[in-house]
Amino acid sequence: MENVTLQGPVVVIPAQEYETIMNRLFQLEQSVQALIQLLEDRDDITAMRETEAIYFAGDAVPFADVLAEVQAEDE
Questions:
Q1: Spatial contact of 32 and 24, defined as CB atoms under 8 Å apart
Q2: DSSP string, the chain
Q3: More confident: 23 or 46
Q4: CA end-to-end distance (rounded Å), the chain
Q5: What number is the average pLDDT over the span 53-70?
Q6: I need a labelling partner for 2 at 20 to 30 A (CA). Which of 14, 31, 52, 53 fits?
Q7: Residue 57: what pLDDT?
Q8: Are strands 5-7 and 53-56 parallel, antiparallel or unpaired?
Q9: Using CA atoms, how far apart are residues 62 and 64, in angstroms rounded to an integer?
């Protein structure tokens, strides 16, 4: 990027280098979006684990209660 020059408040970038910079910025943006999605997915999974509810006919039933009922039936 030796051809990049500063002319007052304006940065002059040759077209070929501009394209390279824009491609790198696009790749960076894609990586950041993928990371954000992974973090959101992790948060969703964490939230599901924290609540651990099973839904029957629209009512949330705590997973622990369902598990205890099933275990009681098995005994």
A1: no
A2: -TT-EEETTEEE--HHHHHHHHHHHHHHHHHHHHHHHHHHHHHHHHHHHHH-EEEETTEEEEHHHHHHHHHHHH-
A3: 23
A4: 74
A5: 65
A6: 31
A7: 55
A8: unpaired
A9: 5
